[in-house]
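Hey, I'm writing a tutorial for new members on how sequence and structure tokens pair up, and I'd like a real worked example in the thread rather than a made-up one. If someone can provide the structure for the chain below, I'll link this post from the tutorial.
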Amino acid sequence: MAAPARSPQVTSSGAPRAGGSGQLAGRTVSRLGFGAMQLERLRADRKAAIALLRRCVELGIDHVDTAQFYGHGFVNEVIHEAIRPEDDVVVVSKVGAEPDPDGPLPLRLAQRPEQLRAAVESNLTTLGMERIPLVNLRRTDTGPGLRAEGDQVVALDDQLAVMTELRDEGKIGAIGLSSVSLDVLRAALPAGIACVQNAYSLLSRDDEDILSLCRAEGIAWVPYFPLGSAFDGLPKVTDEPVVISAARDLNVTPAQVALAWLLHHAPNVLLIPGTADPEHLEANVRAGAVALDAATLSALDAVPSRSGDIALG
């Protein structure tokens, strides 16, 4: 007898999906995922890093965002050790940069097609996978971060050609994009795009038109810096008076209000807040249950976007 179908509202462990259910690369996942970058902070305590990932599974998180350049492979290795096949977790990685431990920043761009292929192979090795469900191509068209120069200025078509080859070879399941403009996304649509990751928050909404296109095309919108940033030009959402007032009225934290607003803002939004602290992880998950009434949403929507396009490095 066939096993009964699992409700889309629960994970393989039977836990309610954190933040409810959404779609990512053809899979039903929790709308609240986990951004694994900060696991590098636990390099000296590998058991704690593994325990944190196990706690993600227990809390109903079934998609994790990573990259080979997070901790020079350490984060991927921990994910390989902690996540089990029966957890049915969608692991998402990204390419377009590589570790640079001796440089002024911990990473450098790696945009050339052969570098993208090598990065996918490295991710496969450290994750212990034969196929990565989704790989995001990190470009440098918009948002904070490095800007491409010299041989790192690579045509989108050349990059998508190798990404498509990797998908056809079965090494990746779907292609996503990160740090892209509206024109780049439109140009990439024929390749089949499953996800877009751009800097976006309540206070940084310059990409509203990209979000709208993603929603129309069935593409997951996965914002990074969902709470803003310490970078100049990306103000912290948790310092916004309207957010603080809403948090006080709801008896939650400003960060939970900021994450809840994103989930309420559009149905294709998935979140990947990161942390190395179990209590912070649980607080992020609780944000998925924060209900914002019409008046609160209206007040938050009225907060003006104050983002700016900056380049670092």
